[in-house]
Amino acid sequence: MVPTDANFMGDVFGGVILAEVDRAAYVTARRHARQNCVTASFDRVDFLRPVHVGDVVDFDARLTYVGRSSMEVLVEVRAEDLSGGEPRLVGTAYVTMVAVGSDRRPSAVPPLTPETEDERRRFEEGKRRMQERRSSRPNALAHHEIHDP
Amino acid sequence: MVPTDANFMGDVFGGVILAEVDRAAYVTARRHARQNCVTASFDRVDFLRPVHVGDVVDFDARLTYVGRSSMEVLVEVRAEDLSGGEPRLVGTAYVTMVAVGSDRRPSAVPPLTPETEDERRRFEEGKRRMQERRSSRPNALAHHEIHDP
Amino acid sequence: MVPTDANFMGDVFGGVILAEVDRAAYVTARRHARQNCVTASFDRVDFLRPVHVGDVVDFDARLTYVGRSSMEVLVEVRAEDLSGGEPRLVGTAYVTMVAVGSDRRPSAVPPLTPETEDERRRFEEGKRRMQERRSSRPNALAHHEIHDP
Amino acid sequence: MVPTDANFMGDVFGGVILAEVDRAAYVTARRHARQNCVTASFDRVDFLRPVHVGDVVDFDARLTYVGRSSMEVLVEVRAEDLSGGEPRLVGTAYVTMVAVGSDRRPSAVPPLTPETEDERRRFEEGKRRMQERRSSRPNALAHHEIHDP
Amino acid sequence: MVPTDANFMGDVFGGVILAEVDRAAYVTARRHARQNCVTASFDRVDFLRPVHVGDVVDFDARLTYVGRSSMEVLVEVRAEDLSGGEPRLVGTAYVTMVAVGSDRRPSAVPPLTPETEDERRRFEEGKRRMQERRSSRPNALAHHEIHDP
Amino acid sequence: MVPTDANFMGDVFGGVILAEVDRAAYVTARRHARQNCVTASFDRVDFLRPVHVGDVVDFDARLTYVGRSSMEVLVEVRAEDLSGGEPRLVGTAYVTMVAVGSDRRPSAVPPLTPETEDERRRFEEGKRRMQERRSSRPNALAHHEIHDP
Questions:
Q1: What does DSSP assign to residue D13?
Q2: How far apart are CA D14 and CA D47, in angstroms?
Q3: Residue E66 sits in a domain of what CATH number?
Q4: D touches A (3+ CB pairs < 8 Å)?
Q5: Checking CA distances to C82, which of B147, C35, D75, F86 falls within 20 to 30 Å?
Q6: What DSSP state is assigned to residue C125?
Q7: How many CB pairs under 8 A join C and D?
Q8: CA distances from F65 to D96, F72, F114, F123, F125 (A)
Q9: Using a CB-CB distance cutoff of 8 angstroms, which residues of chain C are in contact with residue D13?
Q10: Nearest to C46 by CA among D73, D109, D61, D44
């Protein structure tokens, strides 16, 4: 994290963190989908601890749920002060990415097959979150090209 | 929005939009608080329509609720294709900013006095959202320097 | 305005301000022309007050005069110190933009119809300035693809 | 010149050129003054030919006139298409820089001693331009910390 | 890797890769040294395969040898085309970093204790390379503040 | 050199210098080749003196040897502290660039005809270095599209 990412006390802007979260989610989703992806939504993100200029920040992203064309990616953000100490959890984010074809409409992606007990639990939770997101998405979306039946 | 903000189909990354949302919220909160501010949380953000490289994007930010040291800022994002057409609503975000003193702890800010009927309604809604955020914030926050009694 | 825009005393480079002035003029001209535009000239710009890192800078651009394919845009630059105080006028710039077609030659744009007394006065002044610019433009321009009869 | 500096036809924004002009003028003035400098004004700049993404652009800056604390720098801008052809003159700019002390007020600089006939002529012309600038500077300047008696 | 990092055929500049290699080496050395570090040298780097815009590039850095105040870091660079295929080795680099104290002179760092057979072999090879670098470093270095007896 | 290029003591990252070295080598090679070029290798680079934020850095690049499709470029890097003092040699780098055609394979370039005694000596030395580089290049190169018989 470099000086231009920060305010005048050296705290990194939360939005700069989210921009990197999105990039990590994009790479993870695109690698699975093997086609172009766009961000459909960010769930609420709480910033648990401040990040400072000079910290090394790690974005650990993994797929938790995959629908027909949408994918939920969990990104855990950890910051490490290089002067000492362990990486600290800074925040977690669930990002929904949608694969889109060259016609810019949602496009089917390979299924995700959870294998461990833990992965299966996360998959079911992700499925539930996805359903909640859809039912609470603003109306404007009804007329929108990105939806995922 | 310039080429490096976008994927290979010219869609601007959602995270780039959020980084600007945060900057707009920061300016709005800092102008009210007259002291340094940090981002405490972003509520869920749905991207209702894609933004393309070359669009002019407008971030309209205003204070909706102000507590002792935390402020809720509503940011409405609109994108305009300069080749024609009206600006379109792309998404809305509620950002919670906290004023912090030179000791990096939450610091009191001037109150917000809603004047119109509409402002009063938004204020009450913002107060309710703030209470919900606090009750559902991850446990890690309990040990965290940023809280706002 | 962020640190990389500034010298070592925290004064923002004048050229960084002009780059943003140009961008504001481009958006204003392109929105009117509904086609690509290039910068033909900047009139003299005096920097009336310094801008500092951390100031929020506002670029207020409007069309003052429109010829066949060239447009004059007035950009007023104001800087606001977020720690307090009103925005201060930092400088004003007249930028001449020319609409260009896909053959990269000047291309006609819709006329501008000034409506208020003030707009009509500005329009006449802009017309005069445009004539002066043309008569004093360096000879090299005679051989140049961008001219506007 | 890289893609983000350009519009969608690959023409580099004039303002991006001016930002580099200012940087070249700053280095030239600062090297002479051995102290911090700020930009006081840009004379009118005509863009004689377009610059394209991928061109190598050369900024040739030299001092033409030096007063007590202000310096006039002439910057000639040339663009070279690396696929072939000579560098072409794109524009010229006169930039006025003022040396400022740690109190942020104008500070005296070493004199410039023109040596060749050509340098003496440029010096006299620069002196005349400096006087014209002062007499036509907006009133706001009267109250401004940067002036150079 | 984004557009501004590349030439006009979409090949990423080798120097952009090296800038990231240096950053990875810096983080690795600084984490070990717990103090500021500067780059003393890059060994020869061959670019084995081109990297393209849109590839995800991974920089895997580890300490191979540690002297009194200098550290050798091996960085392996792999590029992955997100449309499919495994990450490919693009190049490897040995970077020598030196820990420097607040007086800007070399400062002792904790020793490195190789544990596996492989680590011990790499350590001995690193030691040999470090000796060769010192004996062949340009004379100018003799007068230089950064040396490591 | 601006703040984001530097660590926290104001020393510019060596990798940032190398990125600019590469750009200078690219421009020099491309101007000679009149076609696209990619970086094949960097010889060892020793950083003889630190570069600080605010220094003006000069990259002096020239062709020393030209083979069928590969070119050796010598880049000398000098840093100047604008507060006073002469530019100091910071490091030198030999960069090997290869011209590539639209099929992305090495493509013949015009020969270089050394004229002075000094140029002839450099040419012969460059030829020897090129042969050494080829014989010691990693095996991976055997399967690589960029080679220069």
A1: P
A2: 7
A3: 3.10.129.10
A4: no
A5: B147
A6: H
A7: 124
A8: 43, 5, 9, 5, 8
A9: 19, 22-23, 26, 39
A10: D44
The amino acid that residue C24 corresponds to is: A
Instruction: Check the CA dihedral F53-D80-D52-D63 and report its sign.
Output: positive
Q: Which chains touch F (3 or more CB pairs under 8 A)?
A: A, C, D, E
Using a CB-CB distance cutoff of 8 angstroms, which residues of chain B are in contact with residue E3?
3-4
Written as one letter, the residue type at A64 is: T
Domain count, chain E: 1
Closest CA to B80 of B61, B60, B62, B54: B54
Helix (H) or strand (E) holding B41: strand B37-42
User: Which one-letter DSSP state was computed for residue E69?
Assistant: S
- Residues in chain D whose Cβ is within 8 Å of chain F: 27, 30-31, 34, 56, 80, 82-84
Local confidence pLDDT in tens for the 149 residues of chain D? 766 777 777 888 999 999 999 999 999 999 999 999 999 999 999 999 989 888 999 999 999 999 999 999 999 999 999 888 899 999 999 999 999 998 889 999 999 999 999 999 999 999 999 999 999 887 544 334 444 43
User: Cα separation of E54 and A26, whole Å?
Assistant: 12
How close is the nearest chain A Cα to the Cα of B120, in Å? 23
Longest Cα–Cα distance of chain E, Å, equals 51
Instruction: Tell me if A148 is assigned to some domain.
Output: no
Distance from the Cα of E112 to chain F's closest Cα (Å) equals 24
User: Could you read off the pLDDT of E63-116 as tens digits, one per residue?
Assistant: 999 999 999 999 999 999 988 889 999 999 999 999 999 888 999 999 999 999
Q: What subunits touch chain D, counting only 3 or more CB pairs under 8 A?
A: B, C, E, F
Note down the domain range covering B21. 3-142
Q: Which residues contact A131 (CB under 8 A, 6 or more apart)?
A: none
How far apart CA F90 and CA F16 sit, in angstroms, is: 13
